[in-house]
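LALA0S08e03026g1_1 (Lachancea lanzarotensis), 307 aa
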Amino acid sequence: MSEKSSIFNSPKLYSFDYFAACTIGGLVACGPTHASVTPLDLVKCRRQVDASLYKSNLDGWRQIVRNEGLSKVFTGFGATFIGYSFQGAFKYGGYEYFKHQYSHLVSPETAHNYRTGIFLAASASAEFVADLFLCPWEAIKVRQQTALPPPFARNVFDAYSKMVKAEGFASLYKGITPLWCRQIPYTMCKFTSFERIVESIYARLPKPKSEMSNLAQIGVSFTGGYLAGILCAVVSHPADVMVSKINNERQKGESMGHAMSRIYGKIGFPGLWNGLAVRILMIGTLTSFQWLIYDSFKAAIGLPTTG
């Protein structure tokens, strides 16, 4: 590493600059990618709230364009971009930080032998923090997307103002528990499966990772990211449905437990899997491109790719 390393110029591994660079990389990887699939997310969320609303995803987009206008397929774009930029920053930067810290609590040999446990603990810790920054924007996004008849607000800031004025700032965190239930298992699966999948891929390639080009390594990251994304989508989907329902249907003064019990009683176990196919498509694509962007960013500033 250069003695004059900085955040954007070969930052020294595990230095403040290194973790800051990973934080920026996570922001760049997550905000734009999540926002880009807003049309998929819009129909998914509406179908989760009311399964009879559209006959299919395609029918959903057709009805939205016909009844609301073409631009409305991006309802929730602003809140998604802001929320997942924050979340990505703290998720990726936090993961690198916690992984390093937890690895140094034990000997190098123990850390290697039990690396799966370290990946799980680090990703859970990072996501717990990241969701505190995501939750308000996720609540705004869900309200914008599921308010029927639309529109709920002119834009993300108008929606923020309306929700806080009507229900108080605390209303933006009423979905934090189901969000943690969705996001923490999702991220544990995302990072741990990615690490082990790319490790398995590298073990089967004719050349060691150290002898491969950055482009080849990033290709491995993309492949591992897509496979990890499929697993993530399945693991986190029931909680994703519940987040949408809670943010849309939880009554004022109602406890989280009572709200979840009431909603589950109405939709049942099958209802927790509404929209799974589109979520697999969305999350698989998102995860692969996030790892592609994140590791491309790391390689561009002189850092090793993940895995």
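The two ends are 19 Å apart (CA to CA). DSSP finds eleven helices and no strands in the chain. ok done for today
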